[in-house]
Amino acid sequence: MEGIEIRKALEEAKRLVGARLAKAFQVGDTLFLRFYAPPGALVFDPKLKIFHLTELRPPVPPSPPPLAQLLRTLSGQKLLGLDQAGWDRVVRLRFPAADLVVDFRPRAGEVFFFGRDGRTLSPYGGTYEPAEFGEGDPRGGVGPQLRKAIQASLGRKPTEEELAAWAQEVAARPPQGYLYFTPQGPVASFFPRPDLGPPQAAFPAFWQGLDRVLQTELDRAWSGEHVHRLKQAIQRRKRALEALNAGEREAQAWGELKNLADLIMARLKEIPSRAKEAFVDGFDGQPVKIELDPMKTPLAYAQELYRKASKLRRRLEHIPQRRNRLLAELTELERQLQHLEERPELAPYLQGAWEQEPQAPRTGIGQRPCGREWIVEGFRVVVGRSAQENDVLLRRAGRDDLWLHARDVPGAHVIIRRGGRPVPEEVLRRAGELAAWFSRARGELKVPVSYTEVRYVKKPRGAPPGTVTLVHEHVIVVSGKEEP
């Protein structure tokens, strides 16, 4: 974000001045501050250079990082002010006990905690370069990307007078949200950007577009974790195939062992007991040297060779089936990896897909029971147990059945069988609690759960098992501590 963009985001965030801090939590380098009286939330990330209002509710890490722990000491305190250093990329949040300064000027970004007791802390170990908080020239908020916007509108490089006039005009606009898709990823703007082409979406507020961009970044983070695990699973299958090939080469020698055992049995009377080696005539009449085990009699050694040959023959018979299974798993995992790299937003629905073997679910008459079931006030609530089973549940559901899933975290799909009836709020809440419990958000105090009719849940073509996209959704917040 550039200076003018930060100013517009702050204009929207000013409504939280006077609210009390309820909670601070951190996902990677992204910090969320939740407030009450009035309710709302702020998000900032010094690395991604973002600061705005947010409605996103990503999963809370089990243990808060140091910065989140530090900010939790301000819980219950009022947000006294939100300031910007002129039109520069420096934001200050003022609380009674401390100021929090988010500095986007350094390449990597910095955060500083200035306590009223004299403490100065930075989780990234940077040095604060003083900034003057107050008004300034809007031109100071025009960075390289916004300069491209004015240059595209003029068709040439602007003069200083034109730049000043343009900055004043843009800065006076009420912020709205415009979302653009570029080769580098989505971009949000508070005013139309013809230089980026037609907008893909428009919103009443700037922060809503910024939320969409941040959601993409969070999806990429989830996707990165899944990609890592998928690559590990792929390497395990490749190593298993290498070991299988080595085992096949060893097993192919079973015939030679059997022939050797046959020869020993045919020449038992000619082989001295406890000998290390013996020379006998082969079946073709040519002399053959036989290596023996001096700790065993020739008969016992021949019997051991028969057992080993039989074991290797049986192993050889099963190797093609095992190889086909590994190759099928490897193909499926590589397909999932490619799809996830292309569609990182599908990551929250891939719970353990890399650990499961591809199976063709049964359909039609005689199909086996699918999912765990609960009866809640006369409604059947079904919960998937795997990515494949989630797909089956979706296919078997009616178009007006309700589908639920813990928002933005891997978890099970939940279906409420409606049968044309309206779903009471208590049934919806209990199904939401099941979706929260059977997800990575289990144990959290508040878990947002997406729900919609099955007709609005779409399975992308070629997507890995369990992945879906939503055309329309509602969100409820439930406890992740309610056991089934």
Produce the secondary structure layout:
Elements: H1 3-13, E1 20-27, E2 30-36, E3 40-45, E4 50-53, H2 66-71, E5 81-84, E6 90-94, E7 98-103, E8 110-115, E9 120-121, H3 144-154, H4 160-171, E10 177-182, E11 185-189, E12 201-203, H5 206-251, H6 254-266, E13 277-281, E14 287-291, H7 298-342, E15 372-376, E16 379-383, H8 387-396, E17 402-406, E18 414-417, H9 425-437, E19 447-453, E20 457-458, E21 469-470, E22 474-478
Antiparallel strand pairs: 1-2, 2-3, 3-4, 5-6, 6-7, 7-8, 8-9, 10-11, 10-12, 13-14, 15-16, 16-18, 17-18, 17-19, 19-22, 20-21
Protein model, in words:
The chain has 484 residues and is an alpha+beta fold. It has nine helices and 22 strands. The protein has a six-stranded antiparallel β-sheet. Strands 5-6-7-8-9 form a five-stranded antiparallel β-sheet, covered by helices on one side.
**How many alpha or pi helices?**
9
Overall 3D geometry? elongated
- Helix/strand-derived class? alpha+beta
| Biggest sheet statistics | 6 strands, antiparallel
Helix content class? 25-40%
Low-confidence stretches: 352-368
User: Rounded to an integer, what's the Rg over CA atoms?
Assistant: 33 Å
Give the strand order, joined by hyphens, for the main sheet.
Answer: 15-16-18-17-19-22
Number of strands: 22
Q: Considering the protein shown, what is the CATH homologous superfamily of the domain at 3-136?
A: ibrinogen binding protein from staphylococcus aureus domain
Average pLDDT reading? 86
CATH topology of the domain at 3-136: ibrinogen binding protein from staphylococcus aureus fold
Q: What is the CATH class name of the domain at 3-136? A: Mainly Beta
Our measurement of the CA-to-CA distance between the termini, rounded to an integer number of angstroms, reads 44 Å
How much strand? 15-25%
CATH architecture of the domain at 3-136: Roll
